[in-house]
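S1.2 Input.
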Amino acid sequence: MLNEIYTHCEKKMQGSIEHMQRDFKTLRTGKVTTSVLDNVKIDYYGTATPLDQVGSVLAADATTIVVNPWEKNLLSDIETAIQAANIGVNPNNDGDQIKLFFPPMTVEQRQESAKQMKGMGENAKVSIRNDRRDANDKIKKIEKEKEITADESKSAQDNIQKITDKFISNIDSILKVKEAEILKV
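S1.3 Output.
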């Protein structure tokens, strides 16, 4: 029973780390990635459709993204959606495709990205601490129901704390690497 709690807790904590890393993809680092357009949706025949499902989205070089719609009549819709997404650049429509030219990041922009990244890390840590609390509550509940002794409960809570510490230090090391990546010119 305790092993199930440990396994469930680790799975939830790993999910928090994976969520944080998905969030990182929306941050801009020195090199532009197509993931900055992940949240852009186009009204495609009445349905909000992700940009990458109505055309190809490619990073042509370190500062340029090219959007090539499969249907040319969508160009103005795509242009409007990108402007509304407020990603920091204006789309250039040449009648055939849309190009996004990202200027090189300034030191202030890099620091702002690093700040956002740290906030995402803090959110992941809070989520992990909530998972720890949930696991400890389950342990206390089965102790209260006399399925385990007080000593076993204390030992199990110590194990949950060790698991928590492992994931928190994992987040700290991921944040350190990501910060170096963002601040590197």
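S1.4 Remarks. Residues 34-101 form a domain with the Gyrase A; domain 2 fold (CATH 3.30.1360.40).
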